[in-house]
Structures are given as C-alpha cells and as structure tokens.
Amino acid sequence: MTKHHLPATPDTVHWGYFSKTLEPVLTLKSGERAVIETITHHANDDYERMIAGDPAAEEIFHWSKDRKTLRRRGAGPTDGALTYGSGEGLGVHLLTGPIAIEGAEPGDIIEVRILDAWPRPSANPAYQGRFFGSNPAANWGFQYKDLIEEPKPREVVTIYELDMGEASVKALYSYLWTPQTDPDGIVHPTIDYPGVRVDHDTIVKKEGILSGIKVPARLHFGTMGLAPAEADFVSTIPPNYTGGNMDDWRIARGARMYYPVAVPGGLFSCGDAHASQGDSELSGTAIEISLTGEFEFILHKKADLGGTILEGLNHPLLENEDVWSVYGFSVTNYLAELGPDHQHEILKRSSLDNAMRDAFRKLRRFLMTTQKLSEDEAISLMSVAVDFAVTQVVDANWGVTGSIRKSLFAGR
Amino acid sequence: MNAQPFTSESYSGDARERAWQDVLAGFGLQSLGVRAGSPAHATALSRLSSLGVRLGTLSADAQVLRPLPTRTGLPLLLLPVGNSTVLVTGGEPQIVPAGQVILAPRAADWQVQFQRGLRALVLSVPAEAFRGRKAAPLAACPPRVFEADGLPDILARTVQAATTALDRLSEPEWEAVAQSAAELLLALSGELATTSADSSSSRAALLQRLYATIERSIGSEDVSIADVAQAEGISERYLQKLFEGTGESFSHYVRERRLQRAWHDLANPAEAAVPISEVAYRYGFADSAHFSRLFRERFGLPPRELRRREADRQGQGALPSGQRGWPQEALVQLRARQTKSEPDTRRSVVPVSGEPDATPQTPARHYLPVHAQHVHWGYFSRSLKPLIEIASGDIVTVETLTQHASDDPERMIEGDAGAESVFHWTRTAKAVDQRGAGPLDASVFGRGAGEGFGVHICTGPVAVRGAQPGDVLEVHILDIEPRPSRHPAHAGRVFGSSVAAWWGFHYSEFLSEPHPRETVTIYEIMADADEPYAQAVHAYRWEPQTDPFGVRHVLYDYPGVPVRPGTVTPQTRVLEGVRIPLRPHFGVIAVAPREADLVDSVPPAYFGGNLDNWRLGKGATVYLPVSVPGALLSVGDPHAAQGDGELSGTAIECSMTGTFRVVLHKKADVAGTLLADLTYPLIETPDDWILTGFSHPNYLAEFGADGQSEVYAKSSLDLAMRDAFRKVRRFLMTTKGLSEDEAIALMSAAVDFGITQVVDGNWGVHAILSKRLFPDRE
C-alpha cells in the first residue's frame, strides 16, 4: 500500500478557512494512507518552546515588516482598511491540506480512519525532544463575561508540557494576555488574530500553577473536515455538515470519521490538534499542540451507501470500537440556513437547546434508517441507552454529541 | 398545536424531498426541485391558526417555487430574506431585493427563483379565514412587488415580528396575531386590485369596498341596498349587478354575514355569559325566536347547542398538550389559597425517640419495607412525620416502587403485597390518595388528588438524629437489588416500564402518524446475566384510561392509573435483538426542601430530588445539603437503565430495593473538606466527582415557593451549563485551592460536561471531574 507523507510547509497549509477553490496539495486513491503533519496556530504563544529551531514552523509563522509568509488568516476581507489583519481572523485554525480523494463527488461519503497520532517535538536545543502546548482562556470562552476575580475581563494563557511516557499533561506556567503589536503595527488588545507572536518581555509568567495536577492525555484533532459547497471562503470556527472544528476528543486514534462530500474531490484538511480537552472546551481552547497523524482514506460512493450505516448520512458521524456518535449543532447547516451574513449571524444563534434538538433528530434518523427501528423504538432507545454530552460551547455553532453503544445491536 | 419545526435532517435521503414538498404544500407552494449537486437541506418553522392562516419561515438550498394550482384563498405573501430573488411572471423576470414584499395570486402563472438559496417568510391566508366574509376574487391579477412603505411595510414588519416570536406566542396570542395579519393581507390585496388596469380588477376592488361597508353596518336592523350604494357613490342597480356576478344576492349575503358573526360570538368562550338574544340583537335580529330558526336552518343546530359543544371542546382543548405542574393562570389561585399538607396519619416503623441516644458502638441496621403507610407520592414535604429515626453511620435498607408499575399491573403489582398496598385503588378506596403537590380536591385539572403535580413514589422520610440546616448528609449506596414479580405466571422475573410521554423532548415533533402519541414499552430485566441487560417485552400506545374513580386520562397525566388489559394493544416485536446494558440507580434521592410545605417531586434542585443521573448507582454517594431539622431523607424513582438526557421523559422504571449508609457531616466539621460550602447535590463515584447543574439551581427561592411551575416554562440547557460551570469553578477554588484562572484552564482541558436530563422541568447539565487529575494532592 502506498503511504504518502504530507509535511506542514507554507505550501501545504491554509490558515483560518476552508475553501473549495484551493488546489489539492495531495490526491489520494480510496484506501491509501497518508502521514500528515499539523502545527498548532497557538505555537506563537511560546515561540521558544513551540517554533524556534523548527524550520517548517519558523517559515509558516514568519511575519516581519517586509514579509508575512501566510498573509490570509481567516475567511474575512484581505484588503481595504483592516482592523485585525488580512482575513481578519475570521477563522483561526492552521490546517494542512487540502487532500483530494480521487473520484469523490457530492453525495458520496469520505471515511477518514485515524490510525495513529503523535506529538511534534520541540526543536529548540534548550527543550530538545520535549512536547509543549498552549491553552488560552480566551475572549470567546464560556467564562469570559462571567469572571469573579479581577482584572475583568481578562485572557490567560497556560503553557503545558505533555509527558508521553505517563500519557499526561502538566501545566508549566501561565500569563495574562497583554496588548501585542504585530509586525504590521496593529495592536491586538485581546486574542483577536491568530499567529501573533507574544513578546515575552511584555508578560509576567506565573509559575507553580496547577501544581500536582495531571491531566490525562487525549491526543486528538480538533478540526478535520471537507470543503463546504456554499461559499468560496468559510471560517474554520463553526463546525458544520462537512465537519470542521468539531472539537470532540473522541476523534482520536482508533476513530473513523465519516463526512458527506460537498465538492468534487472532497478536499480534506486537518489541524487544530489537542493534547487534551474536556467535553465543552469551556475556556475557548483545549491544550493546543502540534501533532502528526497517520490516516487512511476510504471513499464510499453514493450508490453503495444503501444498507450500510452511511445510508442517508448528511452530517459527520463518528465510529470507534464502542460507539457511534452523531453531532448536533445549534444550526444544522448554518451556511445554508443563515444567508449571506452567516459568519456573524451564527454568533447570535449559539444554543445548547437547539444543538440537543439537532442531535436528537440526527440520531432518530440514524437509528430508523440504519438499524431499521420504528420511530417509537428509536425514541425509547434514545431515552434508556443513548448518552448526550456537551461537545463545545465556544465555537459559535455549539455542539451536543449523542452516542450509542454498538454492542446494543450485537444480537440483531 | 404550537409552531411546527421542520428539518430535512429528520428524514433519510429519499424521504426528504417529499417531506419538504409537504411543508411547502401547507403554504400552497411547490418546489421545482433543488439545483443538482448541492446537498439537499431544508428547514422551516410554521404555525397554523384555527382558521387556516399559516405563517412561517423557510430556508433551503437554491430552488424555484411556484403556486399549487387553486382558485381560492388570498394572494400569497412572500418576503425574501437576506438575498434578493427573481420573480418570473409570464416569462418576464423581475429582481426583487430582500425586504420587499411579493403579493402573488395563487391562480396566476408565476415562479419565484431563489438562486442563492431559499430564505423567505410566507403568509398564506385561505378564503375561509374571514368566516364567510367575502374576499373579492383576484384570479386575473398578476403578482406585484411592493416597496417596504406604508401598508406593505406594516404588513412586512408584522410578519417579521410574528415569525421571530412564532414558537413563543401563546395560543390566544397567536390567534390574534394571525387574524391581524390576515386582515392586513386582505387590505393589501384590495390595493392589488385597485392598481390593476383591467376592468375585472377594478370591479373586484369596488366589491371589496362594498363588503367592507356591509361589515361596518351589519349591526343595524335594516342594512339597505340604497344606503350601501350611496356610501360608495354607485347606483342600486349597479350594486345588484355586481352581486349577481358573484352568484349571490345582496340580501342573502347580508343575512349570511350576520349569522356567521353571530356564530363567531356564540362560539367565543369569553362571551359565554352573554344571553343569546343579545347576540342576536347585535347582528340585527330583533326577534330571537326568528334568529334561532334561521340559525338552525343555516347550521343544522340551535344556538344553545352550539354553545354547549364549544364549551365541551374548550374543556378538552387543554388536554392533548398536557401540562406539568400548576398552569400559570392557576398560580394566582394558588397564592390566594396557600396549600397545606394534610395532617400526617402514616405509621412509623419504630417510635421516633425524642432525645439523642448515646452513640452506638456499631452502626445499627434498619429495614424499611414499602407499603401505603411508608410512602409519599409525588411530593416532598418538610411537614411529613419521619417513619424512622436513624443515627449517623447507620445502614438502612429501603424498598422502593416505581410509579410505572401500573403500566403492567400483572407483571409489576399483582401478588406483591407491598405494591398492592400502595397501588390499591377501587371505586370506593384509594390507599395513597394524594399524588403530587397539587390540591387534594383536584380543582385545577380534575385529574385526581394532588393533580399529579409530581409523580414519584418516595419511600420515607427517614430522619437523621441531630441533623440541622447547614449540615451535609452523605448517602452512600451499598447495594441495589431489583424487585422480582410475585405473580405466579412471572414469579422471580423482573420487569420495568419506559414511557415516551408527553413531557418528553421528542413530543413536539413526530415523524410518523398518529401524532402526537404516547408509547409505553415494557422491559424485562436480566439482572443475573454475566453482563446484566434489559430487553423489550412489548410496547403499546397509550389509550385513554378511566381510573377507578371514573376520571378519564386521555394522556399519561396522573401516576398510578392502572392500565386495564384489553384497553391497549401490545405489540410484541419491539427492539428485537437489542440488549440494553443495565445501570441500576435511584432517580430520586432527596432531603426535604425548606421553602414550601408541599414540593412537586419532578424538578430537581439544591435538595436533590429527581436527579435522574445514572451514575447514582451501587458504590456511589450523594452529598445533600440539609435544610430542615432531621434532614428527612426520601428515596424513590428506581431505574434499571437510563441514558444521559432521559430523552423520552422516563428511564426503564423498575422497582428496586436499596441499601444505604447514611452519614451526617455537621456544619462545624466540614470546613476545609470537599463538603465545605456545599449548596447542591454532589455525587461521588470511585473514579469521579459529579457536580449537578440546573437551569435554576434553587427554583423554589428564585420563583417563590408558590411559583413551582414557572421552572417548567423557563428551563434551558444553556442556563444549566452556566450553573454547572459556576459550580465547578467554585468547587475547584474552594476545595482544591485553585485560582480562578487555574480552575478555568482545568475545566477546559479536563472536565467533561454532559446532559443529565431535558425532561424534568428543571433541566440538568452535570460536570464530571476525574479524581485522577489530583494524584499528588490527596
């Protein structure tokens, strides 16, 4: 079997948006495997630990007065009077891809199997071989308007170290976000544009935080998905029917994700890797880290979906050894439903109640279609054997996951 | 019914297109198909008034809409949102910017092309919406686009505002809004006719004005042709000719309108006290006998009979949607008449000692069997006399019954002395009369004593010696045993019931007919299997049940109504081959709340109660803040299995017996421990702490002790999530000594928030905090 390698370089990444207009950086046949490097968009929170000495990361993040390697960051405007920067940070994730799957057409399903995932070591001689991540409690977090201690409001960045031997993550230090001036002279009083290098002379590091606390590692990719059909440039922040920023820690080694194809080739991208995250991703981010993953891609043609668990699927579906999970969103397909101003409109629609309703509907359809249950059987089962959890409350299009154990059906 | 949501997500691929066409057909529209290649997606929210007015918002992929051919009804109102659209009339395209109003007669030939996705508000008004008042036919008019100014603007704004509030308007509010919108549309349709050049349209406009004049003067005894003609400046002859053209004479039309308006007033419950003769007089009938005769000839029933039927219909109208807790209107009534619990006449198991004993050396063991004297049904109360008093550290075994045993009395009640005692209910005797926190005389809905405002059979209460407000009660579950059937045919086997009930999350949106409906599924519990599981035995649709006192329960609105064999039709091939792993737990573990004498057992809150968290099983502990002397612990609502969310309204409800170790933590001793500052139920399992968030953490305090029902109307997962967040933050800061920033960082990286339930009035989100996080801190 051919195994491809897709390194993260300025030519293989796109920042803050999905786009059907991007040329694929790699084209695979169904059944092929690829090792894909991803780099976290929060690496500049601690340049020394997460970028310095790593040529690819250095080049991707390069931004001087004269040259900014990746100018566009986000699906927003790229010229005119810019408030935050090109792309305006309307979408923040640094994604590797897109990868086209030969023969994929709208209506097909692309299955992505995560075979393995491992962290990208620091290349700075001072930290050689160690793994670091960053967790900002940001302005888009659930806590931001609900803080009790001064100063209010505030953003706090916590830098973590991942111990692969112990499979746990420990906090190293934290700092209060201070206004950062980017090389173009734009001041960022809050975390409002991705990849701005934090000048460590302007911050005060607080050591000894979260002492004695070990967070079990849950290596996963926060953002994986296909290009949507509705618009040319789509923010990476709100997850949607072709996947994207799902922020579910179960999208990890051993998981298979199924995505509906919206444009020819599918155009798969991934990034936004996390060392760990809780259900809800409360503060706005997980422990953001650079990971490399090994993936296998399988194309399921529309004509072959009948009678499989993919029949009628028009939303992302997770399968692992134990469960199937569907993802409910506040707005099922916000690109189609909210009109031209969808990127801003979705911010007003965040609601767990609607996400719960969406998850209920998707799971009902899944059980009725693929397990051939009647509506009443599906509803009874959802009450007694399906677990609904809060996926995230920070990605504009909030999420509720509904999971059902596969073992229930062993006797059918 | 309320607003109807639609989303194509509910349907599988091939059914989607048809379901969407059905939605459009409700508006008198059809789609010519979506643009090929894009994933078909459509959503809608619409609401229908009793007179057929339908208002809604549509959003879907790019497509073309055209009217379903029909000759009746007012022109359709379409309001493109966000994107401009193209109106094609007789092959002529016209671009309509968002915000302008399209008025399009149904019989005309037109299309609306939504090239960048369909997003529009639609108002559809049938001819019948005006109760026989005529709308002049406008078949020949082409569609017209209005700028948002003047009347079109007012109509557009009304439609926009109404659509925004569509699912929040109460039934009477919605009826009023729908009727106003219909009137505005009628007025605008007149304009369509006026501005049209052809003579048939101007005739229609004139007719419309004549109809309006008649409507205004309908109360006077003699509306003459001469007066009406004069008012419009036309000759009597011409007026008669105009009417002949509609196939109806002037005098016949006037009489028809008078009778229709009289029907309307007689059917209005608000006017039930107005004498029939006065209604007749209002519409120009001075002789009420003559009126009654005409009325009967026209409608086939006398005015008095119409009133009686309408009163019956209104009475039942409240039923099919169901209501938990007090109706909002009844709160006033409740406040005026403070409910008190009845004097407690139940027996104690052992005499309650007045003075504290010396602390015993070994924990004492107690046994609380279940029977009518040992339960309170559907409510918690600080006024209940404890059945037993125990010391801190004692072990108590408590038998509990599920209130759903009556769903299959043969399997779950018969032959079981305890269950028979509690469920005993004949024409003359009901062992446990009060079920719920409502009035004993059932004066709110008439369902039965207590009104079913609260449904759980709770065993207890148990007093804990020395417990005082401010202390914390630790309830540790040592064991849970299911209660086997005692019926000879099923002896030794264990059964449970799960009801997809009207308070379930799914109830507002069924896919298949009939809807809505309630379905009961009976499960057998295989507790002794290597991997214990439940599997469905049979299921039946709830059919109206008449209880032994003669009250008919159209819905599952009162607990413990025995389902009589023969009244329902069990289906046996249900969930074949599906095995549901057991998660035995108690849905309800409560101490008595302090705020009110009688508290509905359904909404959980700070005192515990109906937590419905399956993690509260064997080996788990719940810590509850004590708020009345003695704590008054009660247990019930046993579940064999439940998923996070409890979507359909119930778990697998199954009678079980629990063994608990109860430890009292005095306020003075909890400082510096995990229990310091505990104001909510905290669950501990061997691996985790689970913090319980609610939409309204103390709804009794928030809405006032008498406002117990408001919580049902105001629950949301967003609020519950916020409460859970705040509780975890406080827990980490208070008991783990973290700073706020550390607590928030940890929550994002390592705390899992899950949905406990969306069916218990006060919705729940819990947070799971793994003990593994703190290896070096213990």
Automatic annotation (TrEMBL), chain A:
It comes from the Bacteria. Pfam families: FmdA_AmdA (PF03069). Transmembrane segments: none annotated. InterPro entries: FmdA_AmdA. This is Acetamidase. The lineage of its organism: Bacteria, Pseudomonadati, Pseudomonadota, Alphaproteobacteria, Hyphomicrobiales.
UniProtKB/TrEMBL annotation, chain B:
SMART domains: HTH_ARAC (SM00342). This is Helix-turn-helix domain-containing protein. Keywords: DNA-binding, Transcription, Transcription regulation. The keyword Transcription regulation applies. Residues 208-309 form the HTH araC/xylS-type domain. PANTHER family: FORMAMIDASE C869.04-RELATED. PROSITE patterns: HTH_ARAC_FAMILY_2 (PS01124). It comes from the Bacteria. Residues 308-364 are annotated as: Disordered. It comes from Ancylobacter moscoviensis. Pfam families: AraC_binding_2, FmdA_AmdA, HTH_18.
